[in-house]
Amino acid sequence: MNHDTNHDIRLVVLDMAGTTVADGGLVERAFTTALGSDPDHLAHVRATMGESKISVFRHLYGDEIAAQRANAAFEQAYGNLVADGLVTPLPGAREAIERITEQGRTVVLTTGFARVTQDALLDALGWRGLAALTLCPADAGGRGRPYPDMVLEAFVRTKAAEDVSQVAVVGDTSYDVLSGVRAGAGLVAGVLTGAHDARALRAAGATHVLGSVAELPGVLT
């Protein structure tokens, strides 16, 4: 997609941890705290960064009860780290969201975490009300990234765009990018502030690779 059509973007779907929020390794710390430091498990966690967390646990444990128990332990551990003040916005992220909103576009924040964890993040950052809508996998019927469900849920709920080509999806992982590609988004941008590098983001189908989300308002104009 070339830059002269970017003004058509009406809806911007942004990932949180690694994209607008500095993760600082908190996901890995929470996994280790809750579930131990099994090297194979940690390798899988790194490889699937951006995927719905419950999906990761289902893969690791192969049993729904065990997966739900592990997910609850992880969410608790991550919530504790957030409550300890260890989460911060990435430089320019809040300003970027405000600028995009001022441009007349609608911003939705998405996550692979459960709602309780997403709410803890929003509270810790003072971001309640910053975006028009916040979505977790459960809000979209339970399927997180790399499925397109959260992007399409944002499209349906906000009524901000007339066509999926007017949607921009931005994230730091190949799963974020893939969810945007699968949703038919007109602009799919990877950012280099999180889990995956430019090569992985482009391989997943990113139309743009940005240093950070702070560059996004300029790209949209």
UniProtKB/TrEMBL annotation:
One GO CC annotation: cytosol
Keyword Hydrolase assigned: yes
Name used for this protein in its record: HAD hydrolase-like protein
Highest taxon of source: Bacteria
GO biological process: DNA repair
Gene3D superfamilies xrefs: HAD superfamily/HAD-like
Gene Ontology MF terms in the entry: phosphoglycolate phosphatase activity
The keyword Ubl conjugation belongs to this UniProt entry's keyword annotation: no
Species assigned in the record: Streptomyces roseirectus
Keywords: Hydrolase
